[in-house]
Structure formats: C-alpha cells, structure tokens
Design a protein that fits this description.
147 residues, alpha+beta, 6-stranded mixed beta sheet, 5 helices, binds flavin mononucleotide
Length: 147
C-alpha cells in the first residue's frame, strides 16, 4: 500500500558542511530511492532536515531503517505516516532544497515554514503537501533546489 511519510531531524554537528552532506545524501538517495520506487524531497534549514517520502510502506520502512541509523542526524520526529491514494511528488527523486543562509530569501522561507507549522502543518497531510509543493514551485526558491 502506498504511504506518505514526513519527518524532521537535526544535524548532529553544527560545524559540518551541510552542502557537502546534502550532496552526499542526494548521490546515494537518487539511486537507492529509484530502486525502491520512493519519491520525495529533502529540505534543509538552520541545522534541521525535513524529508518527504512516498512509496510502498514496506520499502519506506526499509529505507527509514537505514536513515535512522545515519549518525549525521538525530531526533527523528515523524509528522506523518499516512496511506495515500496517489503520489504528490512523483517527479521528485530526492532532490534537495537548502533554505540555509542569512539572506532575506532564507528568512522569508523560514517564516513560511514557521507559519506552516503554526497552522495546519502537523494536523493534516494534505495541507502539508500543499505547503511543501508551494515551496518547491515558488520561483524564489527554485534556484535553491539541487537536482
Ligand atoms: C536527513 C537524511 C536523509 C536521507 N535520505 C536518504 C534517502 O532518501 N535515501 C537514501 O538512500 N539515503 C538517504 N540518506 C542516507 C542514509 O541515511 C544512508 O547513509 C544511506 O542510505 C546508505 O545506507 P547504508 O548505511 O544502509 O548503506 C539520508 C540521510 C540523512 C541524514
């Protein structure tokens, strides 16, 4: 059965080169997730990850077992583990969106995410998906996406 997972976690080492970590995750994930039939995106901002994953539940659990063992992050907190009828991120093969930085673009992104959290973010997967997709399609963020 098709499921939608979303979780947040935090980077263990605040001094780590986050861009390099995102690159290395992306390199592995693009191959493995495609093999597992898993689509999704990985957001990063201010030392925190937010990952969206969709695919067959057994494949998601297999992948999450590996991700949970990864020493580069900790405090994995699920926002959603819900059955879905169709994919919302079918064209996304674990691309990453790095919202870090100290420019105003990043601040706008942060505020958007904060407002999203404050609202229906946690309560409703549908609303969450809409917000995540609006971040991905917003032209201001488009240049921050590494495919
Ligand atoms: C926040 C975060 C997200 C990750 N997402 C994925 C992913 O979607 N797919 C993937 O194959 N690896 C992902 N990884 C890397 C895995 O944790 C792991 O290093 C990699 O899959 C190799 O697994 P192995 O230790 O079983 O060989 C992620 C790591 C982190 C820290």
């Amino acid at each position: 059965m098709l499921y939608f997972y979303a979780y947040t976690s935090e980077l263990v080492d605040p001094q780590a080169d986050a861009a390099a970590i995102l690159r290395s995750i992306r390199r592995v994930a693009k191959v493995r997730n495609a093999e597992l039939g898993i689509t999704g995106v990985l957001f990063f901002d201010s030392g925190r990850f937010l990952q969206v994953l969709e695919g067959e539940q057994d494949k998601l659990d297999e992948l999450m077992a590996a991700i949970s063992r990864d020493p580069r992050h900790r405090n994995i907190t699920y926002l959603f583990q819900e059955p879905i009828t169709r994919r919302s991120f079918s064209e996304w093969n674990m691309d990453t969106l790095d919202l870090s930085g100290e420019d105003e673009l990043s601040e706008a992104a942060l505020l958007k995410v904060r407002d999203a959290y404050a609202g229906t973010f946690k309560a409703n997967a549908g609303a969450f998906i809409t917000i995540a997709k609006s971040l991905l399609s917003d032209p201001r963020f488009a240049r921050l996406i590494d495919r």
